[in-house]
Amino acid sequence: MENDWDIAMDSLSKITVYSNSNNEPVTITGDADDLKCIGVGTDAAVFQSLNAPTFAFKKYAKDKIAKVKVEANVYQVLGNSHFFSTCFASYDEYLVLSYEEGKTLFDCVLQGIHIPEKVIHDVEDAREYVRKKGLNPRDIHLKNILLQNGGAKILDVSEYILPGNDFRWEHLKKGYEQYYHLIDGNSVPFWLVETIRKWYNQRNKYSSSYEEFIKSIENFLYKK
Fold this sequence. Notes:
- The protein is α+β, with helices and mostly antiparallel strands.
- Helix content is about 40%, strand content about 20%.
- Strand 1 and strand 2 (about 25-30) form a beta hairpin.
C-alpha cells in the first residue's frame, strides 16, 4: 500500500547530508525542485516536499544515521502529545514527521517577533511530560522550539535517551527572564546571535558557569 509521503522518496534520494566538526550545521549536496529545506541542524536537515506538504522529512548525515532509529523510538515512547511533532515512519536515513507551522525562537529573535511567556511555560510542561515518560529532556534551544499559536512546539527529540543535564534550557529560560525585555520587539543581528551561539557551545573551555558566560557577553557588547 502506498503512503501519502511516498511521492517524495525519489527526490529525497537525490539529497545527501554531511556532518561537520565543531558542532557546526550539516552541509547539503544535491538538488530536487520539489524539496524545500526548512531546517538545518548539526546531525540532520529537514525538508518539505511541495508534493506532500503536510509532512517534514528529517534526513540524517551519513555518519549519523544510527540516530534515526533512536529518535523514532523516542517519538514512540512520547506518544501523542501536542508539544511534539508526530512521527509517521522511519527509513534508513530519515524520519517522516508532521510538518509544523511556525517560526523557531532563533528566527523570532532575528526578526524581532515577540516571544510570549506561554512559550516558556509550555516548554516547562513538555519537559515534565517527557520525564513522566521515563525520558530525559535535553538539547532544547532556540532552533529546537517553534512559536506556534502563541505557544511552543518542540523539535528534535533525539537526545532524550542520553543521561545528564546539558542545562541549555535552564540557561535559556534564565536569559529570557533576565534580559529578554531588553530586546523584545527588536531584531537582533545575525552575526551577534551566531557569535553568542558559538561562544555558548564552547563555554566549557572558557567559563565554568552561566554567570561567567553572561559576563563575557556583557564585556563584549560594552566594548562594541
